[in-house]
Amino acid sequence: MQVGNYGVPGDERDENDLPRFFESEKIHVAGLIIADYSHEYSHWNAVKSLSQWLTESGVPALYGIDTRMLTKKIRETGTVLGKIEFESQPVEISDPNLRNLVAEVSTKEIRSYGLGNNPHIIAYDCGMKYNIIRYFLYEQKVRLTVVPFDYDLAANPSGIAYDGIFLSNGPGDPAMCTSTIESIRWALAQEPPKPIFGICLGNQLLSLACGASTYKMKYGNRGMNQPCIDMRTTKCYITPQNHGFAVDSDSLPSDWKTLFINANDLSNEGIIHTSKPFFSVQFHPEACGGPKDTSFLFGNFIDLVNGKPPEKVLLDPKMYEVRNIRKVLLIGSGGLSIGQAGEFDYSGSQAIKALKEEGIEVVLINPNIATVQTSKNLGRASPDKVYFLPIRAHVIEEIIAKERPDGVIVSMGGQTALNVGIELWNTGVFQKYPGPVWGTPIDTTDATEDREIGRRHLKKIGETLAVSFSATNVDEAVAAAYKIGFPVLVRAAFALGGLGSGFAENEAQLREQCSKAFAVSDQILIDQDLRGWKEVEYEVVRDNRDNCITVCNMENFDPVGVHTGDSIVVAPSQTLSNSEYFRLRACSIKVIRSLGIIGECNIQYALNPHSEEYCIIEVNARLSRSSALASKATGYPLAYVATKLSLGKDLVGIRNSINKTTTACFEPSLDYCVVKVPRWDLAKFNRVSTKLGSSMISVGEVMSIGRTFEEAIQKAVRMVSGGVLEGLDGSFPADGNIEELLRVPTDRRLWAVQYALETGHSVDEIHRLSKIDRWFLSKLKRISVMKAETMRCG
Residue 735: is its pLDDT beyond 70? Predict the structure, then answer.
């Protein structure tokens, strides 16, 4: 795992004198162990490195440690004590389990916020994170009084007139907080009752106060991807957690029930009183920067405080629909072409496997005999019948009329299958036969493909595409370009791999580019030029119960302006801060929910490298080229899962394909780096341009996996270069102007960057010319330094 990539922000404070970027006044860990540390950070918001911050705080840290091996040892033994000890600096191990950690971190004085606001909440600080205060103040707009963990609520010596009680998170054994438990127990007995809401340790304290018991877990649940099921709705939420103790659900009194459970180990994740306004959760709804999928619980609490009756929560009747599916028609991607090749053979093969597991007869149409999905020797992963016929609307209509399938799947065959599916829908063919289109509704798919409809929808939900106008003739395109201002990007709608697209610097270039785009589609788009911004992708999944997860996010090495199929892609993203990552994640889930997509969705963003400003480049309501990369990078079979979801299954019921025991409703966390490098065959042609732009020209790609970016990029380069062992060795033959080679993206720019680094050009200079993020450049610089040191040593 690479840590330190985006540095540490400043110590600015907000209007309530809270640190703007931190959750407490100091670092609370005793030490830090890292696998791979980034000495050079890169982020607009950073003012110092992680190393500087730790040094200032007196916190020791080690890097270059095999954290994967440490994890294996913890799995065998459970949570263990440890220490970081340097030569001649002995350290005694202090067992935190024997200390009252809450007493150490709780506030020593009463603090008030939001004076004049209503209602008034009293909050027990057991180690409370500042984002809890922010949520109460900025989202719920309440008055908040924060008291020490041992404040005697029965005596109420400060005479606080409160309307509700909040119990915060905190460290250690909850049984040590006896005074807090006594105050809660007193509050539970009052009539009329004051509403109570607890988070993390607060869940355990409320449980102990009501008469239940807690226990220490072997490992604890830690991380930002823990799936929790709401026992009222059966919806599953991705939650952040960091706790070593849990509530014993079996010990709850009869008038208390389990509110949430962990979808993996079934441990208690929340409790609720059957008739009184008391509830708590084990996770962090307010986590900074996220995920915040359960932040609505703050609103639920304030509603109780304001006397608003709880909303009636009912299950969706569709959960009980029984689908009698015997036969499905799967539309493949057809012949290989740029932007649509082996990726969709992978998706289709995964779909066939998922369908056959359900005992469904699979009829496949795909004229490409050189594919895995058309093979007949794969047992339960082979289709029952294959039509080697063109992917054309009239052909598919004839097959539907003959086979009478119970459903059709169009989302596994790329743009070709999708366009034909939309045509069949618009001409009424799908409506004429009883078998529906499984998965995402066609009208939703059409909305994402028609950029004008998509733009209006995103505006309605408060999200925006890049400034864009659609046009159906050249004059409309010219008028749109002058509204936006040159340069502009010209794109063809419903096109594959950016076919027909390109940048126009002036009206003459625009008219020329329009003639190319209109040869591909009868609708074109004139877009704002965002070249230089970061390009980021998210793979998002949603089921018919509205459970949503983001399986993988990826970042382009090249800034916006190079088609993602022609760009080096890195997973997971390396230069986004936590706040940026979760902000884009929240947007992704908002979009997929608003569109009603069932299955998988790919969303591409442009992110301003100097702020958190972003806009959506496009939404693909289907399996995309990137979906195959994301599946292989994470081990999460997106096409397989999306197919199961299209049949009406939910994420919680599908098993994790790796361990076969935990749920598929989770977000993979990677301790390695994945790099995709495209392959071009431009050298085979004379007088062909090698410039890379918005139209994809690569014919293949290599994916590599390494514990670090340097390892992964070198592996990929060696493979894409035909097994050349040197990899990025800086021997690029610079026959032209090196500045031009860096400024203009071509199929050889990566090698030009490495050549520039080895010939004395600085990271800042290369960044100025190429707009490639300094973090990536510093990692390539490290390769060149390592080469020089190795050669010096002989």
Answer: no
Mapped onto helix, strand or coil, the DSSP state of residue 273 is strand
358 belongs to the catalytic site: no
Chain segment 213-269, per-residue pLDDT in tens: 999 998 889 889 999 999 999 999 999 999 999 999 999 999 999 999 999 999 999
Beta strands across the sheet bearing 196-199: 111-113, 143-148, 120-125, 164-167, 196-199, 278-281, 268-273, 256-262, 214-230, 236-247
Q: Could you tell me which residue, 195 or 487, shows the higher pLDDT?
A: 195
For 276-325, the pLDDT digits (tens) are 999 999 999 998 877 999 999 999 999 999 999 887 777 777 777 777 88
Question: Structure pTM?
Answer: 0.91
What beta strand segments (E) does 274-326 contain? Answer: 278-281
* Token couple for 539: 């793979």
The Cα angle at residue 662 between residues 596 and 66, in degrees rounded to 5:
110
Catalytic residue among 200, 288, 514, 552: 200
CA distances from 25 to 128, 129, 167 (A): 11, 10, 20
Neighbours of 83 (CB within 10 A): 12
Across 633-699, where does the E strand assignment appear?
Answer: 673-679
The pLDDT, as a whole number, for residue 495 is 63
Nearest Cα to Cα of residue 392 among 337, 356, 429: 429
DSSP secondary structure code for residue 465 in this structure: B
**Per-residue model confidence as pLDDT tens digits over 199-229:** 999 999 999 999 999 999 988 898 899 999 9
Strand 256-262 and strand 268-273: the pairing is antiparallel
What six digits make up the tokens of 94?
């202090």
* Residues with Cβ within 8 Å of residue 8, at least 6 apart in sequence: 46, 47, 48, 49, 50, 52, 53
Residue 632's CB is within 10 A of a number of other CB atoms, namely 18
pLDDT (0 to 100) of residue 340: 62
Nearest-10 Cα torsion for 239, 241, 246, 252? -30
| Per-residue model confidence (pLDDT) at position 723 | 60
Lowest-pLDDT range of 298-302, 616-620, 729-733: 729-733
Catalytic residue chosen out of the listed positions 43, 120, 243, 284: 284
Closest CA to 435 of 465, 387, 400, 462: 400
pLDDT in tens, 519-570: 878 888 888 888 889 999 999 999 989 999 999 999 999 999 898 888 999 9
CB 501 within 8 A of CB 490: yes
Band (pLDDT 50/70/90 cuts) for residue 1 is very low
Percent residues over pLDDT 70 in the chain: 97
CA dihedral 6, 12, 18, 22 (to 10 degrees): 10
Q: Is 628 left (phi over 0), alpha (psi -120 to 50) or beta?
A: alpha
Tell me whether residue 200 is one of the annotated catalytic residues.
yes
Residue 10: count other Cβ atoms within 10 Å of its Cβ: 13
| Rg value, the chain, Cα | 28
Q: Which of 652, 531, 624 is nearest to 260 (CA)?
A: 652
Q: How far, in Å, CA of 534 to CA of 772, rounded?
A: 9
Q: Residue 752's closest CA among 780, 715, 720, 724?
A: 780
Q: Percentage helix, strand, coil, to 5, in the chain?
A: 35, 25, 45
d(CA 413, CA 390): 13
For residue 519, the number of C-alpha atoms closer than 13 Å in the C-beta half-sphere is: 10
Asked if the model's pLDDT at residue 724 lies above 70, the reply is no
Q: Are 604 and 584 in contact (CB under 8 A)?
A: no
- Angle at which helix 763-770 crosses helix 749-758, to 10 degrees, equals 150
Q: Does 243 participate in catalysis according to the annotation?
A: no
Catalytic residue among 269, 286, 701, 710: 286
